[in-house]
Amino acid sequence: xxxxxxxxxxxxxxxxxxxxxxxxxxxxxxxxxxxxxxxxxxxxxxxxxxxxxxxxxxxxxxxxxxxxxxxxxxxxxxxxxxxxxxxxxxxxxxxxxxxxxxxxxxxxxxxxxxxxxxxxxxxxxxxxxxxxxxxxxxxxxxxxxxxxxxxxxxxxxxxxxxxxxxxxxxxxxxxxxxxxxxxxxxxxxxxxxxxxxxxxxxxxxxxxxxxxxxxxxxxxxxxxxxxxxxxxxxxxxxxxxxxxxxxxxxxxxxxxxxxxxxxxxxxxxxxxxxxxxxxxxxxxxxxxxxxxxxxxxxxxxxxxxxxxxxxxxxxxxxxxxxxxxxxxxxxxxxxxxxxxxxxxxxxxxxxxxxxxxxxxx
Length: 361
Description:
Helix content: 25-40%
Strand content: 15-25%
Distance between the termini: 67 Å
Structural class: alpha/beta
Strand order of the largest sheet: 8-9-7-10-6-11-12-15
Order of helices and strands: HEEHEEHEEHEHEEHEHEHEEEHEHHH
CATH architecture of the largest domain: 3-Layer(aba) Sandwich
Low-confidence stretches: 350-361
CATH superfamily of the largest domain: P-loop containing nucleotide triphosphate hydrolases
CATH class of the largest domain: Alpha Beta
Shape: globular
Number of strands: 15
C-alpha cells in the first residue's frame, strides 16, 4: 500500500471528539498529497476553531507519524462556516448564515451574560458574529457591550448595526432615550418590534447571529421561534431544581417548533471565592448534566459564579473581550466551539423538520 493510501486510511480511523466521528466520515479531509518524504494534509472544518487548531494538528501528527514513520508531515487545519437548515417554510435572513438562539426557561440564570460571551467567543474563534438583544422589556446588551451609540439609517428604512468589541449588535436599548425609559407594549406590539429589529437591520455577512432571547416560553418566544429562521438553540440553566424545571420547558418549546437544541450550558455551577479561590457548588451539582441526559441533549459546558464575570459585563467589557486567553474566557470559547461543531455535524445540519402546527384551544 502506498504512503498516501496509508495516510488516507489512517485519517479514516482518527475519531475526533468535536466531530463525533472520524475525519473521513465527517468529510473534512480536503486533500492528502505525498511528494518524496514530505506529506501535506489539509483539513477544513465547518466551524471556527482558532483555539483548537493546534490541538487537532498535534493529535493528527502523533497519529499519522505512528502509521508512516519517517515521513515529514505538514498538517494545516482551516475552516469555513456554511448555512444550515432552519424551520420548514422559512428562508434564511439576508446577510446571516446562521441564527443561534440563546434562551432560558426563567430569568436570573445569567442568560444575557452567557449570550454576549458566546458571541464574542465565536468571534475570537474566527467567525463573523452579531448579537440581537431580543429582550425588549429588559434589554441589557447595550450596558454589557459598553455602547450608548444610536443606530444610523441613511435611507430612513433600514438601520446599520452598532459595532462593539468587533460584534455587530442591535437592541431596543440603543433606540430608547435613557436607561430608565420602560418598554410598555402588549405581546403583539413587542413581537412586531422585535421582528423589525431583526429584519430591518443591515447585517453584514455574518456567520452567526446570536439572539439573546427573553426568559420564559411566552408569546414573544413562541412567535419568534415560528417566524425567525433559527438554525439551532442553546439553553442556559443553573443547577437548581427550579431552574432545571423551567429550562426543560424551554428546551421542549424549541423541539416542538422544529429548532434543534445544540446543548445546555450550566451557569453558576460553582461559586469561586474572590479571596482564596475555593470553589463550592452552592446551587447544587450535576443538574445540567442530568437535564441533558434526561432530555437526550448534551451539556456543552459549565461556568462558575465568579465576581469577575459580573464586573466585566457591568463595565461594558465582557469576559471574552477583556481577556480572551484567560481561564474564564477559555470556558466560553470551549462552549462556543462545541455548540458550533454540533450545529455543523449534529442533527441540526441535515435534519428534515416536520411541519408543525400550533393551535390555541
